[in-house]
Amino acid sequence: MSCSSLEALTRCSVAVDLGAARTRVYAKGAGLVVDQPSAVAVNTHSGALIAVGQAAERMAGRTPQHIQVIRPVSNGHVVDIEMARRMVRTLIGERLRGLKRRRTMQRALAVVPHDADPLMRRAAVETLTGVGARHVELVEAPIAAAIGCGLPVVRAEGAMVLVCGTTTTQIAVVSLGAVVAGGTVNLGGETVHHSVVQYLRNRHELLLPSQDVRPLHLALLGSGGVGDRRGGGTGNTLEVQGRDVVSGLARTVTVDPEELRGAVQTPLTGLLDTIRAVLHRCPPDLVADLAERGMVLAGGTALLPGLAEQLREHTGMTVHVAQEPDLCAINGLAAMMTHGAGVADEGAAPWQPDPTRADPLSGGREVIGGPSAVAAAEAAVPVPEQEAG
C-alpha cells in the first residue's frame, strides 16, 4: 500500500473489522462504537432476527429447534452476506443515531485477510454497501494490525506480524507498505478449543461444555496456567466435569495438562513450519531486520498463555505481544483514517481512545442487540436503492 493510497483513506469516515469472533466499528468523531460478538440469532420458521452480538452469543447451545445462532463470518471473511448485513445494520443503528448517518457511512474502510480471493473481497464490499456505504476501501489484515501495533510499515525495513485470529493465524513480513511474504495456518482459539474437546472425547469419552474449555486453555500452553487450578484440580492435574458419551450422565475425570499439550502439537507444528517457510521466501536483508526487531503477535489468540514463549524457543527470534492485541486491526484502521501515511511512515503510536470522552461501550460490558433493539435498528439504518462497489 503506497503513501498516496494511505492518504486517500483519510476520506473514509467509518472503519469495520468483521472478525470471526467479534465485529468492531470505529467512527470518526465517535471512536469505537461497536465491539460485539459476530453472532446472529434467527427464527428459522419466520426468518425474523431475534438478537445479535452478545445477546445472540449467550444463546449458543441453549436454543430450541426453531431458533438458530448463525456466525456470518468465518476465517476472517463473510460467508453469509445477508446475515452479515443484518448484523452490522443492527449493531450500528442505534450507535450512529446521533451522527449524520448517511454522511458517516459514505466511505467505509474494512479489513480482509491478506490471501483473500476476489469473491471474499466482494463479499466484504457487498456487506457494507448493503448497510449504506457508497464506497468501500479494503485493507489487508497484516497491514492494519502492523500499523495498529505502531510498526513503520511504509519504510524500507522489514517487520513481521502474526495476526492470531479465532480460526486462523496469518503470518506476514511487511515492507514499503505491502506484504513481502505471507502465509496462513489453521491455528486459533477455536482450533485449540476443538483439539481439547476432541481429545477428551476420544481419550476419556467425555463431552465438555464450551464454558469449561477456557480453564484448560490456561493449563495448555503456559506453566502459569497449570498452577492456577481454575479447573478445580490439585497439583499438576485438573478435574474436568462433563457428560459421559455412553451413559449421558455427568462425570468427572482427572486430566494431566501435559496430555493436552500433546493434543494441539500438530497445529502448533504447522504454525512453526509456516513461519519458517515465510522467512525462507524473504530477501536476506529483510531477514536481518527481523533478526534485530523480532516478530509481533496481534489478534485475540495472541493472549494464549505460553504461545509467545514457545515461538521464542523454537524460532530463536524476539517475540513481542502487542498492547491490546485484539484491537490492533481496528486501531490500525482508525490511525490510517486519521493520519494517513504519516502514522505508518513515522511509526507513530496507534490510535487510543480519548480519556476525556465517555466510553461508548461502557467498558465493553453493555449488552445491545436484544429483540427490541433489532427492530428499531433495522428500521433506523437506510438500505440504498442501488449498491455501489
Automatic annotation (TrEMBL):
SUPFAM superfamilies assigned: Actin-like ATPase domain (SSF53067)
Subcellular compartments: Cytoplasm
Region Disordered, residue ranges: 344-365
Signal peptide: none
Keyword line: ATP-binding, Cell shape, Cytoplasm, Nucleotide-binding
Highest taxon above the source species: Bacteria
Function, in words: Forms membrane-associated dynamic filaments that are essential for cell shape determination. Acts by regulating cell wall synthesis and cell elongation, and thus cell shape. A feedback loop between cell geometry and MreB localization may maintain elongated cell shape by targeting cell wall growth to regions of negative cell wall curvature.
PANTHER family given in the database record: CELL SHAPE-DETERMINING PROTEIN MREB
Quaternary structure note: Forms polymers.
Family: Belongs to the FtsA/MreB family.
Name of this chain's protein: Cell shape-determining protein MreB
Record gene name: mreB
